[in-house]
Amino acid sequence: MAYLQTDVTKVTTHVLQRMKMSGEKIAMLTAYDYSMAKLLDATKIDVVLVGDSAANVMEGFDTTLPITLDEMIVYASSVKRAIKRALVVVDMPFGTYQGNSKQALASAIRIMKETGADAVKLEGGEEVLESICRILTAGIPVMGHLGLTPQSINKFGTYAVRATQEDEAARLIHDAHVLEDAGCFSVVLEKIPAKLAAQVTSELKIPTIGIGAGSSTDGQVLVLQDMLGITQQFTPRYLRVYGSFGADISNAIRQYIMDVKSQDFPNEKEQY
Ligand code: KIV
After folding, report:
1. 270 belongs to the catalytic site
2. For ligand 1, is residue 222 a contact (CB within 6 Å)?
3. Smallest CA separation from ligand 1 atom 1, residue
4. Residue 68: is it exposed, middle or buried by C-beta count within 10 angstroms (0-12/13-18/19+)?
5. In terms of C-beta density within 10 A (0-12 exposed, 13-18 middle, 19 or more buried), how is residue 213 classed?
6. Looking at 166, 190, 268, 270, which residue is catalytic?
7. Residue 217's pLDDT band (boundaries 50, 70, 90)?
8. What does the alpha-carbon distance between residue 110 and residue 41 come to, in Å, rounded to a whole number?
């Protein structure tokens, strides 16, 4: 049917499943705005996550808790307008799905309707099962998120590695199976021991995406601004920085200021 045709092969949840089965690693990065998403779209990135890390990166909050559904919808629709190929997943913000599955479904429907995204992501295991099941009944693909779940920072009290003790590791493995059995298409494993992530990855049929979870997960995710070297003073051990764009941007701005002050800019060719 013509209305389903595009000139690019779109990444779907089924494509991610096939990637796990064939052993091809999944590359995922965050984006929150059109300009960055346009740059991502020109690459072969598989998944773009409109993460609630926007609360930190875009809004300057210490935690992800304050970001609202309305704000996530603005970020996500900006990203979605730029992305043609990658699967676009949107984080459900804190307070929009926990403890009330009807509210969870309403929030997920707003995200899908108002942004055109492909899937939602939410944090937690068995405790959010009812919300996950209800969202899935509407045909909305759900990505899970276990391990360090930043929306629970006030319970954890620290951003340290999770599930280093046997009981928490056993609980995480249990929750991973709960998410898979419920019908989640993938699960993010954040900041847990590599050995535990490897075990979860081999036990699950759905793909795992790791951040600070070692090399055995089916894919990796990083926050774009962190890996580009734009976010400074954030140096967790798992982060590999692929550029020094923070310094480049500052240098460009300093040069611009000098050029304006010295009246070098604009020159004859840069005016009408
Ligand atoms: O919000 C976010 O960016 C995330 C990733 C770190 C997985 O949840």
Report:
1. no
2. no
3. 51
4. middle
5. buried
6. 190
7. very high
8. 24
